[in-house]
Structures are given as C-alpha cells and as structure tokens.
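does this look right to u?? adenosine-5'-diphosphate version
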Amino acid sequence: MPTPRLEPILSAVFGFSAFRPHQKELVSAILENRDVFAVMPTGGGKSLCYQLPACVRGGVGVVVSPLISLMKDQVDAANANGIPSVTLNSALSEKERADAYRLVRRGNVRLVYVSPERFNSPGFTEYLKTLPPSFFAVDEAHCISEWGHDFRPDYLSLGMMTREFAGVPVAAFTATATPRVAEDIVERLGLRDPFRVRASFNRANLTYRVIPKEDLGRQLLDFLREREGEPGIVYRTTRKSVEATTSLLRRHGINARPYHAGMTDAERTRSQEDFRHDRCQVVVATIAFGMGIDKPNVRFVAHGDLPKNLEGYYQETGRAGRDGEPARCVLFHNNGDIAQLLRFNAAVGDPVAREAAQAQLNDMIAFARADRCRRAALLEYFGEAYPEPACGGCDICLGEAEREDATVAAQKALSAMIRTGNRFGANHIADILVGADTEKIRKYRHNELPTHGVGRDRDKTYWRRVIEALVVKGLAATGDSRYPIPAVTDRGWRVLRGEEGFRMLRAAEGKRSAGRGEAAPAAKPYDRNLFARLRQLRTRLAEEKGLPPYMIFADRALRDMARLLPGNERELLAVSGVGAYKLQIYGGVFLREIGLYKKALARGAESSGK
Ligand code: ADP
Ligand code: ZN
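got this back:
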C-alpha cells in the first residue's frame, strides 16, 4: 500500500498543522511495516506516532503500556480524537472486559491498550493470532531492561511479538535510554533492523533558572504572584517541607494541594486528580509525584530544594510544558540543601551505592553552581552537544545571573580558612567573617583572630556563597569528608597574593529574579477575558464527561480561539488542536460561547461610544 499523504490526516484527526521532529518518519516507517525504535523526550509526541498509523491502517494496533492508571487516560485521549480504542487490563470488571473483547471482535476498534501482565497471561498470544494485530507499539520500552530504572519482568514476554508475528511491525518508544538500555531494548524485543530515532533531549519551550534560596516562602510567593492561575508543581524533599509549603501557599490564597508518601492512597489520588482536573493550581510534592502525571499544560516546575541528581531533575522539569507551550523551571537551592543531601548519602550502607549517589550529587551541585548555560550543561550530561553559544532560555544566557568582582571577598574568606588551619566548615568560616559571637567561636577563641568581623558589611548568606564559589572555582577544596571542610588550594594562594582576580555569580539578594523576563517565545496576544470564559466552559464540559479538561481542548487551543475569535466551523478548524472529531462534538458550544462574547463586546463598544 503506498503511504498516503500524512499532513491532511494529522490536521483532520488531531488538528495539528505540523509534525514534531521525527514523528512523520516514524509514522511512515510503521506504515511501511518496519520495526522502529525511538528515544524521544517527554512531550516529544510519542503517542501520535502510533495513533496516526492506527487511523490509516485497517485492523487493530496493539499498544503495551505499563501503568494502568495512565492507560485509561491514553484511551480516553484517543477516543476524544475519534480513534476508537479500548483497554485490556486487570482493573476491568468482567463485563467491561467482555465488552472490550466484543468491540475488538467486531472490528470496531483501532487501538487496544494492553498491560504487560495481560500480555503475559496464558492464551493471550493465541488470542492475538486470531486478530491478528496490524502493528504493535511498546510504550516505556525501557521497562524491558534490567539496566533501566523501571524494570518490569512481564515486559520480557514482549519478545513474543517479533518471534510469533512475522509480518507485523513493532514500534518501541522510550524517553529514557542510556546506550546500554537502548541496546538491551532492541535485543530483547528482537527488533528486526529497526528504523531508529534518537531525538534531541533539548526541551526548547522550557526555560531554566537556578536561584539561591534565601527565603523560599517569599521567593515562591513572588514567583507565583506572577503566574496567577497557571498550573504548576513545586517539588520539596521531605513530607514536612511539603506540608509547610502547602500551608504557606494556602494561607496566601493559592489553591495548593500536598502530595507525599506519608498520605493515604486515597488522599494522594485526590491531590493528583484535583490537579489533573484543574481543581487546584499547584501541587506541592515530593518526587513520589510524577510517574502518573501526563497533564500537558503544566506551566512551571519549581524545585524548592536541590534534587539528588540530574536525571531526576531532568525528569521532573520534563513534566512542564508537554504541550510545547512556554513553561518555566526554577530551582532554588542553598548550602543547607547540599549539607542535608551529603548527610543523607553518607548514611547509605552499601559503599558502591554510596559512591554512585555521591558522584551524582556532585554533578548536580556542579550544575547548580556552574557559571555556564544551563541547557548546554544539562544536555551535555546526557551526552548531547548543544551547538548554540547561548540558549536564550536560562538565567545565565538571559544575563539574569549577574557576576561581580569578588577578589577582596575571596581574600577575606581564604585567609579566614588559613587562620583556622583549614579545619572548619563553611558555616563557621562565615560566622568568623561576620563577626558572630557563637559558642564555637568563643571555644576556639576565633573572636581574637584579625579576620573576625572583617566581613561584617555583608550577611552570612553572602559569605557562604563566596565560600561555595571558591570551592567551585577550585580556590578551595573540600575533599571527600562527610562534612565539607574547605581548604585553600594553590590557586587560592595566588588569589590571596593578588596574582589572580576572582569573579563569581552574583545572587539575586532581595531582588526578584525568578519571575522576570519572558525568555521562551511569548504566546501571541489574546483576549484574556474570553480565554477565562472558554476555560470555564471547558471545565463544565469536562465535569459532565468525567474527563480531565485538557482532553477536551489544550490550553493552546483555547488561547488560539481567544486570539482568532473564530466565527464559523472553518475558522475554528484553523485552531491548533481542533480536528474533525472534536469539531463535531464541541465545535457548536465553543462557537456559541465565542459568538456571545463578541456580541457583548460589540454592545460594550457601542454604549461606550455614545
Ligand atoms: P510523550 O508521550 O512523548 O511525552 P505525548 O504523546 O503525550 O508525548 O504528547 C505530548 C503533547 O504534545 C500532547 O498534548 C500532544 O497532543 C501534543 N502533540 C503531539 N504531537 C503534536 C504535534 N505534531 N503538534 C502539536 N502538538 C502535538
Ligand atoms: Zn542557556
């Protein structure tokens, strides 16, 4: 069968005007009966790669997906675009399952979503042979690899696809694949000379900012004040801090919900569902939150503490902006976070695991402190070179991260280290510099040192940062001890002797930097009042149908409507995310709402013109 032109189908079914990178090639390969293997980041648009072939081909495509909670969403989303789909998993009642099988038998279904357990159950292969599937798709394919982080033994049975179904293409997708895991996937699935794609992991619509944490509560409130009503996630490390931040936000009128392992399943589900259904604006969560979240319109991810490692940080920030619209990632951190993580790592019993955790933490710290493009650093960590000299979407490239000459400050801090024999931690050194009167200072008679109080003009936070920067730039070294003790290096001595200067990132002391600057391309101007009304309409419809609002229309679609003010079906089809099916179901109500709004506007203009 010659491959049909795909763009018209993309636009008619999904309402999208262009493919995302690699989508078209992947769809074409599947339609040409080739196996494919695609490594694409979150938000890359993997599901479309098998949903579109399902529309074009006759028969039924079989999709294996590991999370039953997400499966329902995936099926709802496919059905919402008019692609008839069902699930087969253990969560179904006897009747639901019988109904699903009947629909498949009658040929009324294009996609069947199957859990790996069901796939591995006795007799399932024989059942599949009676269909047989027009193609297989494997979502989260890294679950087949013991080297991956989500190994699922049942995934091993998926090798049956290629062994038992000679002419049926298998398409495997994952967002996390080190080369080792990638090879493992190809081998275990037995992919036959697959068409391979490794997409860039750059998330161009995300901006990255790293901000010294001074007063997190105030900093978060400032940040949120500028993103009124925008859905977002705040990550914190402990249950206690999740609770504290949630109450703080709620006290300030922000509709926030907590999420952590100390809550009951029911409580957690409620927080997650409230978030998915736009019934709350913010979820404050530990990293337990996220696996089951595919909400596309998360507009920001804020980390209130330094994450343990960069993989985690990338995964968590990756939950922002899956819909491709601009979204922000801000990371607040300070020395206290680092000390806490160090203590945590030190308590790891197994020495190999401990060392691995420590190495990962060091990479994370280096990322947070380094004076270089965040995007380039992040991509480099995943083995990808970022070709641009500046990304235009991080605090460094936007010039928000200011630098200052800190030679004199460096000299003061270095000499305090030397005077105390390079034997004290950053906190104590900072105390000496500000001239503090602590028990420890009196005990060691450090109040008698000439350096005691030489840094009185700045606060302790500042001095801790100076010391941090000295360590990053190699003017002082902390070694591997459990409590980092900075000791002056040869380079430090050169600065002390005035042979070399020292510059460091200036922190935004008392300055609001998290909220400034629109780095990612700003959304085009649109009528915000109409947008708000359309959102209300969407919420109403979603409640009627028991769907999350984003499955009715994405934010982007509503914004487009509020910009283009479509007056008829043809104009509405020009809106991104409006395909033939959604037009048929929702077109009328949305056109009516827009019409009413336009009339009210016209009346308003008339009366004010008098
Ligand atoms: P992934 O599974 O790779 O994380 P999804 O398949 O969930 O990504 O897609 C992420 C979002 O991008 C969804 O909201 C989807 O509708 C949207 N999307 C996918 N392909 C396109 C496209 N070609 N144009 C516009 N939006 C798209
Ligand atoms: Zn940058």
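Residues 7-198 form a domain with the Rossmann fold fold (CATH 3.40.50.300). idk if thats expected tbh
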